[in-house]
Design a protein that fits this description.
The chain has 270 residues and is α+β, with helices and mostly antiparallel strands. It has three domains: 12-66, RNA-binding S4 domain (Structural Genomics Hypothetical 15.5 Kd Protein In mrcA-pckA Intergenic Region, Chain A, Roll), CATH 3.10.290.10; 79-137 and 233-256, Pseudouridine synthase I, catalytic domain, N-terminal subdomain (Alpha-Beta Plaits, 2-Layer Sandwich); 142-225, 2-Layer Sandwich (Alpha-Beta Plaits). The chain has helices spanning 14-20, 26-34, 127-134, 154-162, 205-212, 243-256, and strands at residues 12-13, 38-40, 43-44, 51-52, 59-61, 64-66, 74-79, 108-110, 118-124, 142-149, 164-166, 169-171, 175-183, 190-198, 217-225, 228-229, 238-240. A hairpin with a 2-residue loop joins strand 2 (38-40) and strand 3.
Amino acid sequence: MTSMTDPAADGIRLQKVLANAGVASRRVIEDYIVEGRIRVNGEVVTELGRRIHPEKDLVDVDGTAVQLDVSKRYVMLNKPIGVVSTMRDENGRPDLRQFTEDYEERLYNVGRLDAETSGLLILTNDGALAHVLAHPSFGVTKVYIAKVEGIVTAQTIAMLTKGIELEDGPIAADKARLLDTSTSSASGKESSLVELTLHSGRNRIVRRMMSAVGHPVTELVRRQFGPLHLGTLPAGKSRELSKIELGALLTLARRDAPADATPGDVQEKQ
């Protein structure tokens, strides 16, 4: 007889929860369970009768995390230039509300891009995920493409990856590479395209780094945030994350969550 304190004695059957989450049909999920492809809270489950509590148990299939709460929404936005990364701007500037009006859920941005920077921004109502991704020690990798003044040399690229000193401390790019150089036929001005990969969350870090090496930024776009890629999403457009993208993001967040990062309500960062 099963004890009432046994975690498998109550809750909802695992295959039902995963089917509701859109992973696969119950019959297919039962095959996954028998094959040992599903883990609950890090432990492989092989019993078809296993029950779980979706609000607190963590489940992954083939090593990829699954979001069991179907009320959670995850949206990728290509934030255009001129929009501030807040849900309500006190100065009346264009803000993110215009991109969340079509969603029933109350969405918030994860992190920020300054008004003159375009690119990938995540909007969600998942407070736990937002908290982890915004945690200072999490250091999610971000990839930027910067158009800068002047011709960037190999020595400058090396300097960016070796490290430079800013007013708030030293900083080094995880990766840096020169994509292109050009000279305007009209003005004769020279410019370069540089790709920078960083995990720092410091304010306006790309602009400050490029200015420090003598190449002020004229245009800046964030192309990648962790496992998410902007792709061909036009500026000012948004779309929901695919199950593959969401699984990759949740897997990253659960794996690297800082020890002192605890789930909480989404707080709008000003």
